[in-house]
Specification:
83 residues, alpha+beta, 48% helix, TATA-Binding Protein
């Protein structure tokens, strides 16, 4: 059995709107310059919530994209908390 595509959706709630905005801005270069044709990511901010949707051609690509974006989000969040 093969899948045409797979998708994952996440909602991440931050303490305030500013944190969500900073993290969104920090991820924009990654979204714009995605190195793979096997996955696509969409990120939206709604107040203090970031909504992330990742679509991929296969489960392996989906897992890789999820891991990358969650790692970048965590890194950005940790940097914010250093200030």
């Amino acid at each position: 059995m093969t899948l045409e595509s797979v998708k994952a959706e996440f909602e991440m709630e931050f303490e305030n709107q500013w944190e969500a905005e900073v993290i969104l801005k920090s991820l924009e270069p990654e979204i714009a310059l995605a190195p793979s044709q096997r996955s696509f990511t969409n990120l939206k901010q709604m107040n203090n919530i970031l909504k992330m949707e990742i679509c991929a051609t296969d489960v392996t690509s989906l897992r890789a994209a999820i891991n990358s974006y969650l790692r970048w989000i965590r890194l950005s969040y940790d940097v914010i908390k250093l200030r």
